[in-house]
Amino acid sequence: MLADLFKPPWKSGSVEKRRRAIAELNGVDAEHQDILIELARDDEDASIRIAAIQQLTSAAALHELSIKLSDSAVRTEAEQRVNELLRAGHVSDDAQYRDLLNRYPELQLRIAAHAHSESVRTEVIQSLSSRQLLEVLGATAYTNSRQLITETLSDIEDLESARKIMRGKDKNAERIIKTKIDAFRNHERQQAENLARLGKLIDEVEYLAGHDWLPEFSQRCRAHR
Description:
Strand content: under 5%
Distance between the termini: 103 Å
Oligomer: single chain
C-alpha cells in the first residue's frame, strides 16, 4: 500500500487514477508516448488500453500495436486511430507518408483512402488494381479520390460494383459511373446491331452469289460485298 503512494499515477492500482493520468499525458512528447505505448500494450484493463491508444499520435507506433494486440476491440481501436491520424494530417509531409509505405507496405490501401495529402493519395491510387480501387472507394471520404478512382475504372463489373458502393454517397462520382456504364451499354447495343446487320448482309450475299447469273442479282451482290 505504501509503495503504491510513490508510484507515478499511470502505474497506480486504481483504474480511475490511471485514466486521469492518461488524460494528462502528451502524445507528442517522446517520454509520454513511450508511457502511452506501454499502457496500450500491457495494461490489464481494456478501457485503459483504449484510452492510451486515443492519446497516441504516432501512426507507426499505433500500427505496430494493432499488429501485436490480441484483444480484437483494442486492436480495432488502434486501427481506427491510425486512419484518424492519416486523415487529420498528423503525418506532417509527403516524405513521412512515403516512409510509412516503405516500412509498412500493408498500409498502402489505408494511406490511399485516408492520407491528408492529395498528392500521396493520387500516387498510391494510380498503382492499385481494380479490386483495390474498389476497396479504397468504399473507405475514402475524399471527393477528388472518388472521382479519380471512378475515372480509372473501365471494366463493366467494376463499374457496377462502384455504383453500388457510391449510391447515395457522392453524386459526382455516381454521375461519372453512370456516364461510363451508359456508354458501355450503348456500345454493346451498337455492336449487337452491327453484328445483326452484318449477318443479314452475309446471308443475302450468299443468296445473291448463288444466283449471280441474273444481271440484277449480280449487281446487287457486288454492292453488298
